[in-house]
Design goal:
The complex is a heterodimer of chains A (about 120) and B (about 230). Chain A contains 4 helices and 3 strands, in the order αββαααβ. Chain A has about 120 residues and is an alpha+beta fold. Chain A has a single domain, classed as 2-Layer Sandwich (Alpha-Beta Plaits). In chain B, α5 packs antiparallel against α6. The two termini of chain B are about 25 Å apart. Chain B is an alpha+beta fold. The N terminus of chain B is likely disordered. Chain B has 6 helices and 8 strands. Classes of the chains: A alpha+beta (about 120), B alpha+beta (about 230). Chains A and B meet through α1 and β1 of A and α5 of B.
Chain lengths: ~120, ~230
């Protein structure tokens, strides 16, 4: 009990920004397209992310069997991976225990994979 | 840390605020007439009691006046009856027969009047038997009679509890009653609070300020937290 030690408060806004950045990186989209809402579940954080995901274009998949694999797997696999990344990183960065991370994909951003010239 | 205490002034019951570290200024009771320790202690005990309990004098005076008026009226009726004068309302014998004939009155009226009378009686008995405690505690101090409001104890405890739990003081609430202090903490989401650590800090603080009667603390951590608090 050191006197005048003070207290660090991490606001909901700061937590939201951290999770937004993590989710944007994990789903490979711009942070401005990710919306995050935080709630409480029995004293732990419940994170809910609503975001589009970047996918390869259908044209490329048609011509290349490994296009999906190269882009990191199916959409579900990548969302699942993003979920665990967000959970671990957010827990590590904010020091808060996280109960659940819910990802709701609300769109797809299509990327053309350019051949290296 | 400076808990603002309220001391019961010795000569008058006026409350004087001073900080816990104030030096000198021994409260001298009765303008120097009570110098022996035993007398001083008795005086302090009386003052403390006065400060800790709400006075029943108003109720006692009102009741005494009512009873005096009742007896004055009864006396007047008796005298008038003895002088053979007409009664003001009813002569003593009329009153006696009216009371005796109570079983002939409508049941509802008798029941209502009886219930109200019983209720008033019960209320008076309860008031008489309960102490009429004020929300205050006595602080053990050998120089002065120190009386603290429960709110002051509560806010002091809340500050320490909030620091021990590492939550915002706004999310800590403490209720102090006669023998109990209940600490309610709403944790920050994702930051579990150690209830036993908080309880230990609060108990240590309570032991340090030595209240009379002693107060036992309980800590309740709310199940759901608050995001980003």
């Amino acid at each position: 009990m050191s006197a005048g030690r003070g207290r660090t408060q991490v606001t909901a806004r700061a937590l939201t920004r951290v999770v937004t950045a993590l989710a944007a990186t994990a789903l490979d989209v711009a942070p401005s397209r990710v919306s995050v809402s935080l709630s409480d579940h029995d004293g732990a954080l419940a994170v809910s992310i609503s975001s589009p995901i970047r996918v390869v274009s259908l044209n490329q998949i048609g011509g290349d069997d490994n296009a999906v694999l190269r882009s990191g797997g199916t959409v579900l696999e990548r969302a699942e991976r993003a979920q665990s990344v967000v959970r671990e990183q957010a827990q590590y960065l904010t020091g808060s225990s996280i109960h659940s991370v819910t990802i709701r994909l609300n769109g797809a951003e299509i990327r053309h994979q350019e051949r290296v010239k | 840390m400076s808990i603002t205490r309220t001391t019961a002034g010795a000569t008058d019951a006026q409350s004087v605020a001073r900080t816990g570290t104030a030096a000198g200024a021994v409260d001298r009771p009765g303008g120097g007439t009570a110098d022996s320790p035993a007398v001083t202690e008795r005086l302090y005990r009386r003052i403390s009691r006065r400060e800790l309990h709400s006075p029943r004098s108003l109720l006692a005076i009102v009741l005494a006046v009512l009873i005096v008026l009742l007896f004055v009226y009864a006396g007047v009726e008796i005298v008038l009856n003895m002088l053979g004068q007409p009664a003001l309302v009813a002569s003593p014998s009329q009153v006696a027969t009216a009371i005796g004939a109570a079983d002939t009155y409508p049941t509802g009226a008798v029941l209502v009047v009886g219930s109200i009378t019983a209720l008033v009686g019960i209320v008076l008995i309860v008031i008489a038997l309960t102490g009429g405690r004020r929300a205050r505690h006595l602080l053990v101090d050998d120089r002065a009679a120190v009386v603290v409001d429960n709110e002051v104890i509560a806010s002091a405890l809340a500050r320490f509890a909030a620091r021990a739990a590492d939550v915002d003081p706004d999310n800590t609430s403490v209720t102090v009653t006669h023998r109990r202090a209940r600490v309610d903490i709403t944790p920050t989401s994702g930051q579990p609070v150690d209830a036993t650590a908080v309880l230990q800090v609060v108990t240590t603080k309570l032991a340090a300020i030595e209240l009379r009667p002693a107060v036992t603390a309980t800590v309740h951590i709310s199940r759901s937290g608050k995001v980003g608090a």
